[in-house]
Amino acid sequence: MSMTITHGTFPSKEYRQTLPGIEEICNKVLQGDEKILHLAIKEAQGIVADNQKNYENHPSITMICNWWNSVANQNLACADVFKVWVWDEIKGLFIAGDYEEPPLTADGFMDSVDVAFFPYKGTTVAIEFHKGQKYNEFIDGWAVNYSVTGEKAEKWGLRKDELDIMNISRIAIEGLQRIPEILANLKN
After folding, report:
1. Which of 74, 84, 111, 130 could form an SS bridge with 175, CB 3.0 to 4.6 Å?
2. How many contiguous H segments (helices) and E segments (strands) does the chain have?
3. Can you tell me the distance from the alpha carbon of 132 to that of 129, in angstroms, rounded to the nearest whole number?
4. Parallel, antiparallel, or unpaired for β 104-105 and 93-96?
């Protein structure tokens, strides 16, 4: 059972030690190429992300999604965007590239078929793949985004006329930009 951290409350070290470790999960997910991630991070730097702009065709997004779409099972090879998580070995948690997402215990990715782990500068970056903005829907009062599996991945409280605000490509760009910051914080 995955545990997200809310309101600044972290699970105890003792509890985290009872959960599956990252090593177990690494053997169950696709392994990404560090060079591709490095290039994507470099491409994303300097962009001032705007929620009204769609970045799905930006090179930093397409190089990672194209990699996924070339190696994933055919039924999952439909990624347009993604979310980023950086492994914190000390805390035993994945730190989200999205400021609004809480950290996640490693077992959150245990049975995920929509995730790849990329080695990067001595740690692991998890990338969770989603379908693009054109697939977003308004269902029962919620804006919904889908994983490459077709399952609901994100649910935002927006009005129907605000559906275009649900912009996972902006979150992907900002997540890539935030990786160096997260890594610097892990070393401090």
Report:
1. 84
2. 5, 9
3. 10
4. antiparallel
Whether residue 61 contacts residue 103, with contact meaning beta carbons closer than 8 Å, is answered with: no
Query: 82 and 64 in contact (C-beta within 8 Å)?
Result: yes
* Beta carbons of 13 and 143 less than 8 angstroms apart: no
Which residues have a Cβ under 8 Å from the Cβ of 74 and sit 6 or more positions away? none
Pairing of strands 115-120, 104-105: unpaired
Amino acid at the residue 165: I
> Identity (one letter) of the amino acid at 138?
F
Single-letter amino acid, residue 100:
E
CA 97, 98, 99, 104 torsion-angle sign: negative
Give me the pLDDT at residue 133, please.
Answer: 87
Instruction: Give Cα separations from 147 to 68, 76, 88 (angstroms).
Output: 13, 9, 24
Q: What per-residue confidence (pLDDT) applies to 45?
A: 94
- Yes or no: say if 178 and 105 are a contact pair by the CB < 8 Å rule: no
DSSP state of 28: T
Q: Nearest-5° angle of CA 59, CA 61, CA 62? A: 65
Ranges of the chain whose pLDDT falls below 70: 1-13, 15-21, 23-26, 159, 163-166, 188
